[in-house]
Write a structure and sequence with these properties.
It is a single chain. With 263 residues, the protein is α/β, with parallel strands linked by helices. The protein has nine helices and 14 strands. The strands form three sheets. Strands 1-2-3-4-5-6 form a six-stranded mixed sheet, with helices on one face. It has a six-stranded mixed sheet with strand order 7-8-9-10-13-14. Strands 11-12 form a two-stranded antiparallel ribbon.
């Protein structure tokens, strides 16, 4: 059985721990902070077998060097082939190597190219779990630091085609802020209203809203629903010079991301 556990880091990061029971060797996804990972390993008598990285930002990669030193450089480190990331032992190109077999894991890992937030961003799928870094958030998506709106929309559409019961393990607890924006652009979405109430209750109890599911995200996430009529009407009202414009999905998505950047 595969278990997935969150380690909290910084203000709102999640570092995900993958463990194939009853193995004691584990993998971690996007360890920006080595100390919290080491504390978790030692508290649970686990051995770090490897690291999976989604992109080069330091809050996702900052712990790699220290974890390699802690493990005496025996770690397998997978990640995008990017010179900005130090310590990768197995650089990945999703098109050339779409599947990985990991030691101590019984299921293959699927590798997806999802540029947008960064140029070389990748995501991983194992069984029914998606580790999407900063591409897809619950109720939102990542800012476009290096990629284009067209790239991000394509990446999100690719993720949205995964099975509906896929669990979405993004890297940040941004859900309440994302849902506030989602409600501003899609206020009559009952599924969104209900999810917002559940998310508020979870956070009041200091519980994570992550993972969500792709079924839920398809229903409530405006960045997966940029061609929704109410969302398009909201965009036209917000950008008043567009009242009579015909917006295709990419144009709608681009304006939606621009609106969220300044929300």
């Amino acid at each position: 059985m595969l278990t997935i556990t969150a380690i909290k880091a910084f203000n709102d990061n999640y570092i995900w721990v993958l463990q194939q029971q009853p193995q004691t060797q584990v993998y971690v996804v996007d360890p920006g902070d080595a100390n919290v990972v080491i504390d978790y390993l030692e508290a649970n008598q686990l051995t770090l077998a490897g690291i999976l990285l989604t992109h080069h930002h330091n809050d996702h990669t900052g712990g790699v060097a220290e974890l390699q030193a802690y493990s005496q450089d025996r770690l397998t480190v997978f990640g995008p082939d990017n010179e900005k990331i130090k310590g990768i032992t197995h650089p990945l190109h999703a098109a050339a190597q779409p599947r990985l077999t990991l030691d101590y894991m019984s299921s293959e890992l699927q590798v997806l190219a999802v540029p947008g937030h960064t140029a070389g961003h990748i995501a991983y799928v194992i069984e029914d779990a998606l580790f999407c870094g900063d591409t897809l958030f619950s109720g939102g998506c990542g800012r476009l630091f290096e990629g284009t709106p067209a790239q991000m929309l394509d990446s999100l559409q690719q993720l949205a085609k995964l099975p509906a019961d896929t669990r979405v393990y993004c890297a940040h607890e941004y859900t309440l802020a994302n849902l506030k924006f989602a409600l501003a652009v899609n206020p009559n979405n009952r599924a969104l209203q209900d999810y917002n109430e559940r998310a508020i209750q979870l956070r009041r109890q200091e519980k994570a809203t992550i993972p969500s599911t792709l079924a839920l995200e398809r229903a409530i996430n405006p960045f997966l629903r940029a061609n929704d009529i109410e969302i398009i009407d909201s965009i036209k009202q917000h950008f008043s010079d567009l009242n009579h414009a015909n917006l295709d999905e990419l144009s709608s998505f681009t304006l939606l991301r621009q609106w969220k950047d300044n929300f």
